[in-house]
# Entry
Amino acid sequence: MHLKYESQLREPLVYGDKTYAQVTEDIVRPIEAKPTRLWYVGFYIAVALLMFGVYSVYREVTYGIGEWNLNKTVGWGWDITNFVWWVGIGHAGTLISAILLLFRQGWRTGVNRAAEAMTIFAVMCAGQFPIFHMGRVWMAFFVMPYPNTRGPLWVNFNSPLLWDVFAISTYFTVSLLFWYSGLIPDFATVRDRAFTKLRKRLYGIASFGWTGSTKHWQRHESLSLVLAGLSTPLVLSVHTIVSFDFATSVIPGWHTTIFPPYFVAGAIFSGFAMVQTLMIIVRKVFQMEDYVTIGHIEAMNKVIVLTGSIVGIAYLTELFMGWYSQNKYEGYTFWYSRAYLFSPYGWSYWGMMACNVLSPQIFWFRKMRRNVFVTFFMSVIVNIGMWFERFVIIVTSLYRDYLPSSWSVYYSPTIWEIGFYAGTFGLFFTCFFLFAKYFPVIAIAEIKYVLKTTGEGYKGKMGAIEEQKLEDFVHDHAHAH
Amino acid sequence: MAKKKFVVGCFNDEAVLFPAVKKVRTAGYKIHDVYTPFAVHGLDHAMGLRETSLHTAGFIYGITGTTTAISCISWIFTKDWPLNIGGKPHFALPAWIPIMFELTVLFAAVGMVLTFLYLCQLAPFVKKHHFHARATDDLFVMAIECTDATNVDDLRAFLANNGAVETDYQIAEDGWWIGRYDKEEMPFESKQIVAA
# Structure
């Protein structure tokens, strides 16, 4: 038996003097209670948005890509902007559950379950865009390499677009497995205290017959650790590969070597912002302030200010290189199409700068990091900024290409492009509302594991230990092994 | 499957559980299993379980993925359908690294999860005997397999003396079967719905 000790200087991760049973009770209660009116309102709005999206996609599939305002030079518009935006958001979950697990950041336990769920839903939304952008979506399976009767005609393994197919599908699969393997014990907890037949039956199926056997836990720990080890480079690879979609091209503004780290930092930045948006709502609605504490919010805000600043450095580096390279095309893209406020899309560049670089600097102040309202507001601002970033990268590089005669008219989306985007919001929030209602939104078993080290009630007792004399401490805690 | 006899001791604190595990083992009883609500570190060693080799399996699945990617892509691009892409080499290894990496991770993750489920005999619709419903909530439940020589009352008293808050004697199936959880008794049936 190891002594569970953690310095009192560290904030507790679980507030209140909780027992294991109370942890179960607090987290499972929302599943067992009837959904509130607010939940229904939110859920129906999400479903309505989803329906609008389905209709927009229906029009696009029926009448073709012409339903969107893509034109001669702007071949990627809102669709790919939204794709990259959603994929970026999908980075926080696995980062929290994998990288923070390897770095032994205890605070991940409060938010990892919801963040992973968010990741999975965000990647589902992201996947829609390249698939429907194909136009003839019924041929989407052509991207899979398999022996076929068309030659066989193989996909181009040297193309970053194909790497993307592999990266996104692997990321989705691995995140889903990681998430679900963590859910199995918690489903068993819900199952074993269920008091309705239906719940007992459904959670019985979902929990795969989990008993909590020591051997199973041992394997489960090993599985989580290796999946975390695998997911860590995976997270970094996914947005790196998404950035290759741009960086390996010859479009001014795209073919820069800083894209991979710049995109990964941006992805973590926007992902954490989305986690903040969701967790601030969840902790309030489900009264889970004891588990998702101000300390958690502060920790995530620190990540936001760090990654936001990395992104800021990347923007400035690009501008510098646009001048320093003395390449006319680069210079035109960066200094006219983007940074010149009165160029057609200058507003989007400065919107991006304001949202992503300037506003997160507020988190250098501890008071602001620990303010729930400021955090919520900033999390929304950051995601607006990150949407602008992708829009700036894609549209300002494309709308004026090498040949002035093909310079396009001002690109703005049609209602069906907007509808598709709104539809993915619908999909995301429909899934998230269902998740919040039917799944344990906090990893119950993991909270119990850290409870006696970092719970407020248990930490209080650490003070006595800290003041003990060394001899007394050894006397009290040494056993023959 | 044959039914077996078990004496069950429930503990409410892992600090009490560890010495109890040690005493039960020294007394010569065979611990069938200890069911815990979360992963209690060191309990596997205390019970004398060997380390899992799941990570080794993961490594093997991983290199299988790498090999699959490199062999398939190189066969396709050099033998089956060599494409001339700007006169560049057919065997373009650097460009294949992303897919090789992704397949490594994919194979390792999928393989390990399936192996985990197989080893633990976990699957949808699977039903197992649960010695105590609170084993997934707040109790650490030790099940000791009885032999013909076991005196059940003595053993229960022994467990109680070593800190078990509850002891029990159960005759139960050992393995798993296809079953439904809503058919068994409902210990929480009388519980009131708590409004959120």
In short: Chain B touches chain A through 81 residues (CB under 8 Å). Residues 3-52+127-183 of chain B form a domain with the Alpha-Beta Plaits fold (CATH 3.30.70). The two ends of chain B are 43 Å apart (CA to CA).
